[in-house]
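Usage

Read records sequentially. Each one opens with the input sequence:
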Amino acid sequence: MNMENFWPAFCMVCLAGLATGIGGLISFLSKHTSARFLALSLGFSAGVMIYVSFMEIMPSSEASFLAAGHGDAAVARMTAGFFLGMALIAVIDMLVPKFQNPHEVHSGGVCDKNLQRLGMFSAVAIAVHNFPEGLATFSIALQEPRLGMVIALAIAIHNIPEGIAVGAPIYCSTGSRKKAFLWSLLSGLSEPLGALIGFFFLRVFFTNGVLGWILSGVAGIMVYISLDELLPTAEAYGEHHLCMIGLTAGMAVMAGSLLLLG
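and closes with the structure output:
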């Protein structure tokens, strides 16, 4: 584990996690959060996460397994890690009741009244989702800062709509900008918390093989979130074409950023 990258890696995770606060700010800039904006932003997040998973993270996972000396088994391990990641986030989703899950569509529109309880439960649910993301992003950034930066950017973009999911109901039910922002911000703190726990847990036995499993698992988590949560919610909030525009734009932006960083 490359300790020279500790602070840059930790800063990446903090910025990604605290992007939920940006969503909290957006949620009370106007009285009503635009459904079209949510559809576009959720589709955009999905495009970023799907593209970076298959075009950057999975090849890096295979390379890590090859560096660990797994040879012909590298692809099989990468594939297994991908589906294990999907299974992990599926279990987490099943443990969060649907009404409290910020990725589930609820009746009554984007900005119902008396939704303070929902906003607070959404913050807790998002914290549960973000914890493994922080652990994985930090451990990757320690070894490969460039890839860690890409993953942190993808997660940050994904976290902004999650901040809206927390801030909008709290602001609409209480009228308090402070409460909406603070709950949105706090929901992202589990990312750096996961990073610190991951650091103390992984530094003893971190190897290329472990990195390969983490990378492929992160790819599985990101694809699952995109297909199971972001895209269906984007479709529910807006027109199909808005969702696809956001999805395509997200892929294009991530492709361009990878070319520039490459």
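Summary fields computed downstream for this record:
- The two ends are 23 Å apart (CA to CA).
- The chain has a mean pLDDT of 81.
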